[in-house]
Amino acid sequence: AWLLAWPGHILLTDPGHLWHGNAFYPERWSYAFTDSLLGYAPFGLVGEGPLAAALRYNIIYVLIAALAFLGAYALARQLGATPTGAAVAAAAFAYAPWRLTQAGHLHVISTGGIALSLAMLARGHGWSLRYGSRADRVRPGWIIAGWLVAAWQVSLGFGVGLMFAYALLLIALVVVAGWLVRRLRRKPRQPVGRLLGANLIGGSVFVAVAVLMALPYLTVLRLHPHAERSIAEVEMFSPPLRGFLIAPEQSWLWGAAHTDARATLSWPPEMALLPGFALLGLATAGLIFSVWSVRTRLLLAGGVVGTVILAMGTQFADGALYRPLYDTLPGWDGLRTPGRLVVWTTLLLGVLAAGAVSALVARARELARYRGSPYPGGWLRLAAVLPLALVLVEGLNVTPHVVVPPQPTALATVEGPVLVLPSDQLTDMQVMMWTTDRFVPLVNGGSGFVPRSLAQTRQITVTFPDQASVSHLRSLGVATVIVLPDRVVGTPWEGALYATGAEFGVTREEIDGVIVFRL
Q1: Which residues contact 49 (CB under 8 A, 6 or more apart)?
Q2: Could you tell me the pTM of the whole model?
C-alpha cells in the first residue's frame, strides 16, 4: 500500500526524489529496496492517507485479476482457441490456486500485462498457433502497442518482469532464426519492412523503460552489496516437485485437505504452487485431443516441463540447470524465489487446456450439424462449459478480510524524522502505511532486505532511552520516537515503557495511548 501511495505523493511535490522514499531514513534510493509497482503511479494520484492507501490496494487487487483474465483470454483467442477454450485459459491464468497465497506480493500477481502484450504482439505479426503466419493480418500498430504494454509490465518490478524480459528475448531470437531459415531455403516470406520498423520503435521504448527501471536497483546493489540474493537464499526458497500439487491454505476447495501436505514444505507461502487439478487434467487431455497440431502440443508440453524444472530452482538436479542462469544472466541473481516461474507454467497449461476445450466445442458443433441443428443442444453446451466451471471453482478462496489497524494520532502530528518502536519487518511495513498522510521521514522500513543502518539502529535502540541510543538517534537527526505499548511488550524495546530519558534531555508524554519521546 505504501509502494502504491508514494509515487502519487512525490510526483506532485518533488518528482526528482521519486526513488528516495520517506522510509528507511536516512537511506536514499529506498523506493528501490523492493519491486516498486511504479506502473500503478496514476492510482496514487487519487486520495491520501492510510484509508485511501488501503482502498487503493483493494481496488488494484481486484483489477489485476480482471486484467490477467482479459490478457490470457485475448492471447488464447489470438492463438486460435474458441471463446469457451479461451475463457478456460483465462480463468486458469487469473485465478490459479497458487495466486491466493501471494496477496501480499502485488508485483507477483500483476501478470495481466504479460499475457496481454503477447496477444498484441502476436496479433500485430499476424501469427497464431492454429493458422501460422498470415501476411494479410500484419498490423504494425498492434506490435507497437504490445511493446508498450510489455514496458508497463516491467515498470511494475523485476520480480516477474525480469523473466518476462528474457522470455521476450527468447521469442525474438526464435522468430529471427526462423526467418533466416526460411530465407536460406528460399521459401516465400513476409515483407519485413513494416514489421521491423514497428518492432524497432516498440522494442526501443521497452528497452529504455527497462534500463531506466534497472538503474536505481543497480545503485542499491552498489550501495548495499548484501542485498544481492545469495545462492543459499535461492536454495531456501526452491520448491520441491510435490509443491506443484499442493494448494495454499487460502484455497476454499483444497486448503484444509492439504494441511498435512503443506507441513512438509519448508516455506509454504512460496512453495504451495498448485495451478489447479482441473487445469492439469484439461492440459493432459489437450495432449491427446486438441485443435493444436501434434508438434505444437509437444512444444507446449516441453515448455511446461521446462518451466517447472526452472521453478524448482536448486531442487532439480542440485541446480544443474538453474545455477548457470543465476551465474551468467544479468539480474537473475536478484531473484530469490524460483517458484514464481509458475506464472509461465500456468500460462502454458492454460493454452494446452484451451486446445482441448476448443476441440470439444468444435466436435459438439459438428455433432449438432450432423443432427440437422445449427447449434449444439443443452447437454452439449453444458459439457463445453463444465471445464470452465471446474477451473473457476478451484480458484475460490477463503482469504481472511482483516481490519487495518488505525494510525496512531501522534504519528499524524509529531515532528520528523520519526522512529517507531518496536521495529521489525512486519511492524515497519504497517508503520510505512501509516505515514501515507504526510510521508514524514521515517527510520522504520520493511522490504526484501534490511539495510545495515536500520539493523544498527534496531540493535542500539533496544536500550532506549539511554545515552548510547539517544546519542545515536540525534546523530541521525531523529526528532521523535514513538513507542506502541500494545506491541512493545515482550520485545527487546519493552524497557521504553518505564523510562523517561529526562537525564538525557528527552521529554516524554502520552498521546492517545502511545508514548512520544521528543529528542
Answers
A1: 407, 436, 437
A2: 0.94
Alpha-carbon dihedral angle through residues 372, 377, 379, 383, given to the nearest 10 degrees: 90
DSSP for 21-57 reads -STTTT-SSGGGSS---GGGHHHHTS--HHHHHHHHH
Residues 6+ apart with CB under 8 A from 122: 75, 78, 79, 128, 146
Distances in Å between the Cα of 195 and the Cα atoms of 113, 122, 149, 207, 318 are: 21, 12, 17, 17, 42
DSSP for residue 407: P
Q: How far apart are CA 415 and CA 481, in angstroms?
A: 10
Residue with cell string 516461474: 341
Q: How wide is the angle at C-alpha 517 spanned by C-alphas 515 and 519, nearest 5°? A: 170
Count the helices and strands in the chain (H runs, E runs). 21, 6
Per-residue pLDDT reduced to its tens digit, 252-262: 999 999 999 99
Residue 82 grid coordinates: 474458441
pLDDT for residue 24 is more than 90: yes
Spell out the SS3 assignment of 408-460: CHHHHCCCCCEEEECCCHHHHHHHHHHHHHCCCCECCCCCCCCCHHHHHHHHH
